Amino acid sequence: MIGTVSAVLLVSMWTQNGMAAERRLMQTSLSEPGEMTETASFSYYGEGTEYEGRLRSIEDNPDGELGVITFHYDNLATQNKVELTAGGPMWRQYTATLFIGSNGYVERAEYEYPYMYESGIINFEYDEAGHLVYTRIVENNETMEYTLTYTDNNLTQVRYTETENNVIEDGYTADFSYSGVPNKGELMYYDEMFGLELDVMEYAYFAGLLGTASHELPTGVTIHDEDDIETGACVWTLDADNYPTKLVAGEETMLFTWSEISGVGEVIDETDGTLVIYGADGVSRTTPGYGLNIMRYTDGHTVKVLRRH
User: Fold this and answer.
1) Torsion angle, CA of 35/63/61/197, rounded to 10 degrees?
2) Mean pLDDT of the residues in the chain
3) 280 inside domain
4) Tens digits of per-residue pLDDT, 118-154?
5) Pick from 82, 301, 294: which is nearest to 200 by CA?
6) Taking CA atoms, which of 5, 175, 228, 269 is between 20 and 30 Å from 190?
7) What is the CATH number of the domain that holds 253?
8) Backbone phi, then psi, for 69, in 5-degree steps?
9) Is there a contact between 238 and 265 (Cβ–Cβ < 8 Å)?
10) How far is Cα 211 from Cα 185, in angstroms, rounded to an integer?
11) Mean pLDDT computed over 22-45
């Protein structure tokens, strides 16, 4: 289930005094024997911009298939919508409108491959902790459904069913095991790590729009289908601060490069009247919640902060 990954993650880890510390995943690379190493980088909105700290775009290496994936937040505050575009080879070009729910995450996405004359709708559901627990993809007469189960805040099972014209065509169950490897970087590749075929939509997670991550990194998987049982292992290397820098899964190796940032949401005082906090739905909050938090100060400036846990 490990495949080409090109993504960026802004992690916000809230302490009890309201200070935020962040690290960004700056670059990923994927290599396997006999294949060209594929490297991907990102760009994000800088300090003082309206969308400070948010993912702006993901850029594949020149020979990659993704091209540039761009997130457009112009309608987020007024219409709870985010536009996503992907410009690569003609057959891979992709557009999507992401409709954001009150928890700050995508609840429905309408997508299109304009040059392939294909389109579809994806629905997402979450639990109270912000974990993605169900997704349904409908394209023409085909429906794909994933049901996700969590144990102790770790994704431990994915059940998949595919139907066409209301007839079950395929399905499997994948069980994931953990051995205490911390997910401090909050990596959550729904496709490559857990087998959800979301295509470009997977990268909405790295814009803070597709739920929260497992608390640990998976170290094993067992896949049960109608005819067979397959097992696999994931071997992680962590740096001195417990951020993952390397993943070996079968013949594939992934490398991760991180960078520390600071300054986003550093002053958070809900008691002296200097700050009002809103969710993506425009409803005020007394404390920062999961997902997007819009913090408005009495001097008029605002700061947008993504809370992952």
Assistant:
1) -70
2) 80
3) no
4) 899 999 999 999 999 999 999 988 999 999 999 999 9
5) 82
6) 228
7) 2.40.160.190
8) -100, 130
9) no
10) 15
11) 81
How long a stretch of residues is the chain?
A: 309
What is the CA angle 172-148-70, rounded to 5?
Answer: 105
- Which contiguous run of DSSP H or E holds residue 170? strand 167-182
Q: Would you give the distance in Å from CA 230 to the centre of its chain? A: 26
| Nearby residues of 136 by Cβ (< 8 Å), 6 or more positions away | 122, 123, 143, 144, 145, 146
Which is nearest to 96 in space by CA: 77, 78, 118?
A: 118
Residue that has been written with the tokens 């803070």 in this structure: 208
Burial of 282 (0-12, 13-18, 19+ CB in 10 A): exposed
Amino acid, single-letter form, for residue 24: R
Report how far residue 269's alpha carbon sits from residue 275's, in angstroms, rounded to the nearest whole number. 6
Domain count, the chain: 1
Cα dihedral 208, 211, 217, 223 sign: negative
Nearest residue to 209 (alpha-carbon basis) of 103, 281, 113: 103
Inside any domain, residue 277: no
DSSP character for 290?
S
Structure tokens at 125: 């559901």
Cβ–Cβ under 8 Å, residues 212 and 290: yes
- Spatial neighbors of 256 by CB under 8 A, at least 6 apart, are 25, 27, 28, 185, 187, 243, 244, 245, 246, 247
Tokens of 260: 């520390």
Q: Residue 78, SS3?
A: helix
- Are the C-beta atoms of residues 185 and 242 closer than 8 Å to each other? no
Query: What is the Cα–Cα distance from 309 to 215, expressed in whole angstroms?
Result: 9
Is 309 domain-assigned? no
Least confident of 26-35, 38-47, 58-67, 224-233: 58-67
Domain that holds residue 196: 10-265
The predicted model scores a pTM of: 0.76
271 lies in a domain? no
Residue 185 identity (one-letter amino acid) = G
